[in-house]
Specification:
- With 79 residues, this protein is of the alpha+beta class.
- It contains 2 helices and 4 strands.
- The chain has helices spanning 3-12, 40-61, and strands at 17-23, 29-33, 71-72, 77-78.
- Strands 2-1-4-3 form a 4-stranded mixed beta sheet.
- A hairpin with a 5-residue loop joins strand 1 and strand 2.
- The model has no long low-confidence stretch (mean pLDDT 85).
Length: 79
């Protein structure tokens, strides 16, 4: 079993998680578990944009670098 598979399985066990992505620093999708019909490639590119902007903000605040981004909707979580 690949390490990414193990990570995805562990995160998906959390009851409120509806999708999980592992995205490289270049924005390429490494692995994902998402609801059917999800645009995996577009979502991974947008997640990278959020991550990069958060990194810039954290750097200005001098509070370190983000490692994990979790997005919450009114009903679900995407990690």
């Amino acid at each position: 079993m690949l390490a990414t598979d193990l990570i995805l399985q562990k995160v998906q066990k959390l009851s409120s998680i509806k999708g999980t992505l592992i995205v490289g620093q270049d924005g390429l999708l490494i692995d994902a578990v998402l609801p059917s019909g999800s645009d995996r490639e577009t979502l991974s590119a947008r997640i990278l944009a959020v991550f990069n902007e958060t990194s810039k903000l954290f750097s200005k605040m001098k509070i370190g670098s983000p490692r994990i981004i979790i997005m919450e909707t009114d009903t679900d979580l995407i990690a």
